[in-house]
Amino acid sequence: MSTIVDPVDVAATATSLLRFATAGSVDDGKSTLVGRLLHDSKSVLADQLEAVERASLGRGQEAPDLALLTDGLRAEREQGITIDVAYRYFATPRRRFILADTPGHVQYTRNMVTGASTAELAVVLVDARNGVVEQTRRHAAVAALLRVPHVVLAVNKMDLVDYAEPVFAAIAEEFTTYAASLGVPEITAIPISALAGDNVVTPSTNMDWYGGPTVLEHLETVPVVADPSRDPARFPVQYVIRPQTPDLPDYRGYAGQIASGVLRVGDAVTVLPSGRSSTIEALDVLGEAVDVAWAPQSVTVRLADDLDISRGDLIAPAAAPPAATQDVEATVCHVADRPLKTGQRVLLKHTTRTVKAIVKDIPSRLTLDDLSQHPAPGELAANDIGRLVLRTAEPLALDPYADSRRTGSFLLIDPADGTTLTAGMAGSAFAEAAEAAAAHTAAADDDAEWDF
Q: What is the number of other CB atoms lying within 10 angstroms of the CB of residue 69?
């Protein structure tokens, strides 16, 4: 007996999970904010807090250094900076969270890309004494590049500027204008002191002029449950199930996780890259037959026709399939220490499909300081963000990253040793945003020249 459900209703009533990342310049207080968030939300175990207290005393500090809750590497504690991405899980009665405390130093831009790639919200910290700096603009650009839908500007260390509202207002206006020019859809500015706990979990009595939410309140209430039916269905096949048992002699199922959209029994679908068509005959979820399934459920799809389908194929609606192509244009972040060069042969991994590819061209490298395009660099070094043109040995069913973060992203892999080289985002939407932001910066500079 199949079950009929409304995926929107189920998504709305489920306890939601928010993935978010923190970013900011060195010494802006990212790790302290995360530590304060964990501590004040009662998400720190007693033995963890005792270890932090002992480590803090060993460094001559009277109060516990909450940054040590996330700066787990020995080198991080010795240098006082975050190097690696520190993931932490915690929960409140209203929501579950997975946070990524990402590095602020420019040489670890690739680590921020890793942490923010799956984030639905980014918290960008700014030191109230320094305001918006180059690294702040870099982090805003990376958040826009990765299509993070929500950005929180946390103006930290307000206690060091006497909790002055004009200081916060000026920083919030400058950052909001810049981030909006990049195409960031939603920006929320919150004045905080991570060290003192102002507006992190509890409202600050020192900033009665601020009437907005605390950081935790915003994290608990920001909308992250999307309507899966608004996106075209995408189902990358991960495994073909052929039990070949006496009770199931003709069973052929295609197992995997729905990347986006909704699948229904009776839907006409196309299998890519072959382009062959069929109809969904049955859907199985956890061994039970259902009439409808939606992202990100793991399901088994059975089709009415016996088609040649294997791992790496993509099942999509016949009315709205992605275009299969062997020529890929993308914005990428190079994450490997050795450079990526024109003419280099690589493996391209897209969802469950891995194909051979060659780097045909590197048209430009993005200078994150001012979002200008450096033409024809010839290669990309570690932490570089640039444009790539690739030619694949087999067709790929890629969506533009601006339309789908899941089916618009891919990895480039070294075929010799399996090292991940580059994280890619199909399409050129960010290039247009970068041009708009660069124009905005140039206009601001022109205005500054006439400001006597």
A: 25
